[in-house]
């Protein structure tokens, strides 16, 4: 059984979650960033947004939007994520 969804699934912007991100946050890690639509809204608020995305097609799109994107499962890329760097970690 494949967990991969239609690529349109990864376009979600999750605007309803923006209210949980304080303006004081500067560095955000978005795990499961999809195509970067949620993070893009944070970039417009002058935040640095890194994404982690296991689906390469979606992650490649996010690379054009977010500050940095790691493509792979979090457990496989965790060594590339700096410790104590982020103000907030998002799992939408």
Q: N-to-C terminal Cα separation, in Å?
A: 23 Å
As a whole number of angstroms, the C-alpha radius of gyration is 12 Å
Oligomer: single chain
Mean pLDDT: 90
Secondary structure tally: strands:
4
Strand content: 15-25%
Structural class: alpha/beta
Please state the overall shape, judged from the principal axes of the Cα atoms.
globular
| Order of strands in the sheet with most strands | 3-2-1-4
- Spell the H/E element sequence: EHEHEHE
Largest sheet: 4 strands, parallel
Pick out the low-confidence regions: none
Question: What's the total helix number?
Answer: 3
Helix content: 10-25%
Q: What is the structure about, briefly put?
A:
It contains three helices and four strands; from the N terminus they run E-H-E-H-E-H-E. It has 92 residues and is of the alpha/beta class. The longest helix is centred in the middle third of the chain and has 7 residues, at 37-43.
